[in-house]
């Protein structure tokens, strides 16, 4: 297949996959292929897949097999975590010829042009992917060495590899020139970033001080690796969003130990206490898994009590699903699907009330908002300096800053009206 053919990318899963799709798109364009926005226009269909949960795999597999049936003459390319996990099955059972794991993306254009694959175990330091919009992602590291018992990521994304800080700075500066206002530094566990003598707080400080980025954020943090230095850097720089996503997963020490998370409930509470003591306005979000093997009613109640005490601003909540190849997949399932659903429903109901209550406290306050674009239903969507999303009426320009007065809550989303435009962030 010669360059000039058109390709389409469909992305599933996490922010890293979104960034990886930008990397793949850049590699394809550099090789002479042309991006298009729909499957119908494309000669090559690329599906960037996720393997974290069974539901994500099923969605991607359904779309891939449907495309294979609808477009029998087009090249189907499967990439990402599911591609790594189910490579043999995709090729042998489903007849997908082009399958690439997360460290093989540089092979894609060459293989499509009938060249041999020759890149293995690589990083992407020399690729500065094209990104559009107000916000953009920048990968600072890849892989994970933590091996939580339920998680497939260390097996499909392999060991941790950290980027050179100078390369990260170059990418952020390029994005700023392209009009990006917010950069989100990415890693499976950014707190494990270490390049020579530079750790993640030092990297964060360097990016905040050595670039003109208006808003700087990062994902994701692991409680076992976080340091007080991180929060000290956050409080000392106005352009760093006062937000942290800190997955707790369970409020039971017994379950945390079975998950191999490396911290206790008390450890986590101490992190939150320190963070809120230093940055009272900080937004803290989390992930929670219910129905992990061995989770009793008492363990689940501990999680509910923990959520009540911490009062997260928001939580991503899931029922446990075993991932073949992980240690927990060998554990005996002790909770039925019905029990998992009931526990998840209780947890969601509790967290929704907390989210509403916390956002309700914003009513009457003014917030400086970075305008992201049109809201899903009506109005304009923006993000404040603590990472909270706000919807308001008006025709404010995407990428601009406005001052909003919060007038109410819709669902649990703060809504408001424009007080005035802000020409500069700080």
Features:
20 strands; 426 residues; pyruvate-formate lyase- activating enzyme; alpha/beta; five-stranded mixed β-barrel; 3 domains; OB fold (Dihydrolipoamide Acetyltransferase, E2P); 13 helices; Rossmann fold
Q: What can you tell me about this protein's structure?
A:
This protein is of the alpha/beta class and 426 residues long. It folds into 3 domains: 107 residues, Methylthiotransferase, N-terminal domain (Rossmann fold), CATH 3.40.50; 226 residues, Alpha-Beta Horseshoe (pyruvate-formate lyase- activating enzyme), CATH 3.80.30.20; 57 residues, Beta Barrel (OB fold (Dihydrolipoamide Acetyltransferase, E2P)), CATH 2.40.50. It is 34% helix and 23% strand. It contains 13 helices and 20 strands. The strands form 6 sheets. It has a 5-stranded parallel beta sheet, with helices on both faces. A 5-stranded mixed β-barrel has the order 16-17-18-20-19. Strands 6-9-12 form a 3-stranded parallel beta sheet, with helices on both faces. Helix 2 links the parallel strand 3 and strand 4. Helix 9 runs parallel beside helix 11. The chain is globular.
